[in-house]
Design goal:
two-stranded antiparallel sheet
């Protein structure tokens, strides 16, 4: 009976240990984050001229240090203190078994933390009246003034509309192309010919947008372009592809497909490779032709991958391809059809040095992208039962 009672109480002990560990973890994280936010907030209120660390900064610094100490102590106790042995046993076993994998993953995690998470501190610029001499910390808070400045300008509506228009139309036009290409490539019988086609359509992905514009200029320049010279010698009217605003959208979609459609087929080809061949054989015996097998077997089998890619693409509708537009825009299009949020942020932040204003616009853009990501995932999950998360 004693053994049975011990066996019954062991899981309860593990659950208690995990609850204590999580509670200490949350408490330490709250103290660390709260102290950091407190420190940053009070610096922007007091300002550098009246700043006294002993009077204003000591309390939040001690709070953050206490949180960090609790986190470190909690983690050390979880792995080394005997009381947590039941809760940490499985994790210790996994770490020991896959230690080389974790060692390989660690540099990537470190890079993401240093270059993706630490720079998020700069987001507070959106809520500050930034002065270079004061720095980010000691610049005064201005609340939502930077956002009000943006939405109060007449150009805001045009920039937002143009960004949405380019993002939505580019998604509708370019998203199905890699799927169609992957389905067509899968139907090729010759593996050598398929490999040749794949290598050919992958290559444009490795060409930068700077080189892309150089190629377009060499082909379609009104003064020295090869295509326009041929058309002029044939007595035809020249095509002002690079500077004509009406031509910009077509050039945008065409270059996107030429450069990225082939590369986009990789993930769909990998998904198609996992389709059960027995389903194709059964459909063939039932009299289904290749087109019918493609539509009714291959395409539904990769529906989850297509759904996932669609959700991710919808989540970046407000983030039009900055590299592409920045290189393809000219003097006649940069303030009209080629002016999107990303280029406007570049113009305000880099060209004019309004870093706080540009940060506010970028934060608004990413907030909309985040909302679109969750909204698209919700809609797709309701319609198909499958979502990204």
């Amino acid at each position: 009976m004693a053994k049975v009672n011990t066996a019954k109480t062991a899981p309860n002990d593990s659950r208690t240990q995990l609850l204590v560990f999580r509670a200490l973890l949350v408490a330490g994280a709250l103290l660390l984050i709260g102290g950091g936010v407190w420190y940053v907030a009070i610096t922007g209120i007091i300002g550098i001229k009246k700043w006294d660390f002993g009077k204003y900064g000591l309390a939040p610094a001690v709070t953050a240090a206490a949180g960090a100490a609790i986190l470190l102590f909690n983690l050390a106790a979880f792995f080394f203190h005997p009381w947590f042995s039941g809760a940490s046993m499985q994790l210790k076993h996994d770490l020991k078994r896959d230690k080389y994998r974790y060692i390989m993953i660690f540099p990537g995690l470190l890079v993401v933390f240093v270059f993706s998470y630490i720079p998020m501190y700069g987001i507070i610029l959106a809520f500050k009246d930034f002065k270079i001499k004061n720095g980010i910390i000691f610049s005064q808070w201005c609340g939502m003034d930077n956002f009000a400045r943006f939405f109060g300008r007449s150009v805001a509506g045009d920039v937002i509309w143009n960004t949405l228009f380019i993002g939505v139309t580019q998604l509708l036009i370019t998203f199905p192309v890699p799927i169609i290409l992957a389905l067509l490539l899968n139907e090729l019988r010759s593996k050598k010919f398929r490999g040749l086609i794949q290598s050919t359509i992958y290559l444009p992905h490795f060409v930068s947008w700077v080189i892309m514009y150089s190629l377009l200029f060499a082909l379609f320049s009104v003064t020295s372009g090869v295509v326009n010279k041929i058309m002029l010698s044939a007595g035809l009217q020249q095509i002002n592809l690079l500077s004509e605003p009406k031509m910009f959208y077509g050039m945008l979609y065409g270059t996107s497909i030429w450069k990225e459609a082939g590369w986009g087929t990789i993930i769909y080809m990998a998904a198609i490779a996992g389709v059960d061949e027995e389903m194709h054989e059964a459909a063939y015996l039932d009299g289904a032709n290749r087109f019918q097998r493609c539509i009714y077997i291959t395409l539904p089998s990769i529906a989850f991958v297509v759904t996932t890619m669609l959700i991710l693409n919808v989540g970046s509708v407000m983030g039009a391809n900055f590299d592409q537009i920045m290189n393809l825009r000219t003097a006649s299009t940069q303030t009209t059809v080629a002016q999107v949020i990303d280029t406007y942020v570049y113009d305000m932040g880099v060209d004019k040095g309004q870093y706080d204003f540009a940060t506010a616009i970028g934060l608004f853009q990413q907030g909309v992208n985040c909302v679109l990501l969750f909204l698209s995932n919700f809609v797709v999950k309701k319609m198909s039962g499958e979502g990204f998360f």
